[in-house]
Amino acid sequence: MTGASPTRDGFAVVEMFTSQGCDSCPPAEEVLSGIDRDARERGERVYTLGFHVDYWDHLGWADPYGAAAHTLRQEAYARAFGSGGLYTPQMIVNGTVEFVGSDRRQAASAIDAALATPPGTPLTLTVVEAGDRRVVLDYGTGALPEQARLNVALVERGLENDVPRGENAGRRLRQDTVVRAFRSAELNGERGRVELDVSTAPDPRRASVVGYVQQGDRAVVGAAAVDLGDGSR
After folding, report:
1. What is the maximal distance between C-alpha atoms in the chain?
2. Do you know which InterPro entries this protein is assigned to (predicted)?
3. What are the pLDDT digits (tens) for 179-226?
4. What is the pLDDT of residue 230?
5. Is pLDDT above 80 for 3?
6. Could you give the CA distance from residue 35 to residue 107 in angstroms, rounded to a whole number?
7. 110 within 8 A of 16, measured Cβ to Cβ
8. Residue 76 lies in a domain
9. Contact status, residue 154 vs residue 196, Cβ threshold 8 Å
């Protein structure tokens, strides 16, 4: 007798802290790209976000997608996990499980567990405006937990560039779901509007906005995404 297949109506927000200045990161970037590609093919609610940090820039190559705000976000996770230290590549699933980002097996296990867990808070996103310098969205949620925050990230796929210096000198790197803009704000109501400032206009054919409701700096309890090109998932 065959047991019933586990339900997979949950979601997985996969955040990875990475850098073009770190020679351990390209293999993890391949893992992240594979996760995003597989989820899109299967129609699963897996949302990948590559946060490029800036603390590797001193080795001779300033990551063009790096930002101090991304480093601060990783530091907040380090305090929440009680680890005290930062490293790349670090992958975090739904704010509660962290591991080395190149570990395919652990990534698959954490994502499977997340997809089998029903979401605690529904979330919807609607693009109101997507211009050269900003993206405006309306959001709606269900009942909110204490210390609820709405994180919103503009991510872009298929970015490539040459790296002339640093640990990856001489390589041409490709990154998918790179965080190009990010905002986190306390939620005071179940409906509202949020605006993202964008320094470089994304290609709408390969850009998405991912929104996720998080309890402080830990558990992610709801998530949704909308492709700037043609729809949501």
Report:
1. 60
2. DUF1223, Thioredoxin-like_sf
3. 999 999 999 889 999 999 988 778 888 899 999 999 988 999 999 999
4. 55
5. no
6. 9
7. no
8. yes
9. yes
Asked whether residue 134 carries a pLDDT value surpassing 80, the answer given is yes
CA atoms within 13 A on the CB side of 133: 0
- Residue count (the chain): 233
Asked if residue 80 is part of any domain, the answer here is: yes
Q: Count up the domains in the chain and report the number.
A: 1
For 142, the domain range is: 12-232
Sheet holding 178-186, edge to edge: 97-100, 90-93, 12-18, 46-52, 178-186, 148-156, 207-215, 220-227, 231-232
User: Is 6 a member of any domain?
Assistant: no
pTM above 0.90, yes or no: yes
**Cβ atoms within 10 A of the Cβ of 10, count?**
21
CB of 129 within 8 A of CB of 194?
Answer: no
> Which residue's structure tokens are 């409906």?
191
Is residue 2 a part of any domain in this protein? no
**DSSP class per residue in 164-227:** -SSTTTTEEEEESSEEEEEEEEE--SSEEEEEEE-SS---GGGEEEEEEEEETTS-EEEEEEEE
Q: Parallel, antiparallel, or unpaired: how do β-strands 46-52 and 12-18 relate?
A: parallel
